Amino acid sequence: MSARRWTAVLTGLALPLGIVAATTSSPANAIPTQSHCGTEASGSGNNGFVNHAQLSRTLEGIERTTKGVVDVEVVGESNQGREIYTARVGEGDTVVFVESQIHGNENHGTEALLDLLRRWGGSTPEAVALREEVTIVAIPRLNVDGGERDTRQNEMTWADVVAAFPQLAGVAPAWNYNARVGGFDVNRDFNPDLDYVPQPADFPGNSADTGWYITPESQTVRDVYRGLEAEFGTVDYFVDLHNQWSCYATDDPEPRMSPLSISAKFIDDPAEFGTWPKFDMEASQRANVAVYEALQDYGRSGYGAVTLYPQDTNLPGTALGSFALRGSAVVLFETSSQTQYDGMKRNGMLRKQIEIGLGGLVDAVADGSIATLDPSVYDTIPQRVYLPAD
Prior knowledge:
Layout: E1 4-5, E2 34-35, H1 52-65, E3 71-77, E4 83-89, E5 94-100, H2 108-120, H3 125-133, E6 134-139, H4 144-149, H5 158-164, E7 177-178, E8 183-184, H6 216-232, E9 237-244, E10 248-250, E11 260-263, H7 281-296, E12 306-308, H8 319-325, E13 329-336, H9 339-342, H10 347-367, E14 384-386
Parallel strand pairs: 5-6, 5-9, 9-13, 11-12
Antiparallel strand pairs: 1-2, 3-4, 4-6, 7-8, 10-14, 11-13
């Protein structure tokens, strides 16, 4: 196996990817120090993460042990009949809506959310104070069918869609449908118009278009979001927890392996999609800065090597893009690991970084400090550098 060279300045927390000692400093795009990445999967796939039955039992247990402080409800059903849950905690006037595992093979956010729900629903003075200021509504696993079979897509055919929407008979399948897998990339099925009804002329579409709400998963999120809008006026924050390719570095004079990319940007021009007066890019930037700074408290450890997801993104058909147009401050988490490549490798570290980052955002919202954050810090976060497997 060939060795690729990169920097690994990891004080206090070494990422377990065979990293050895750093060499002398070098230009920003040079990667001194040897490691292997993306070639040594553990072989466990998603077996080490909670399956649907275990998720159901865990959420039931959290609701029971917190004496209902964490309120768990079934809010939807997948195409295969599995329950989609929300967990709600807090009574504050500001709402944070968190979604995890819209792609079935992206598990770390689900595990982190379960840990955070236990903390937020606890009896500590900090948890009690937080709940007075903020309401958190979480969907711990949206793509419950994809989660069971470890696929990005849900489990639904185009014929299933036509059966639900007969007006689409004879129309070319949506561009985000994967016939080989028999499922849709649910995160391209959103529309800022919550009342949108699928129209034949809007298919097959493309990644720069809005989506259609043709999957039960996106419909469930839409309905939860609509309910929160009715209750709070605006859904103040929307956070989407994802995973990405395992191997990225920071674009720094001393590059480090990056275990997490974040982003506030999913829309190039809000006016392209109608009139959306609540769209607030600076609010999204401040929310991402809150995540970034929470992780910087861990200094030169691996937790601090956060990067920006590519900023040339224009994805109105994603939940993040659609809800940003409606006025939510949005945060994307892209944890650097996929079950197909890594299995359970670094599981503890990766779920912990989500707990730190998301927990830091919620703390900043609860204590009001998020309003003091400088949105321009967002543009100083290092860009990510792709590292091919070796």
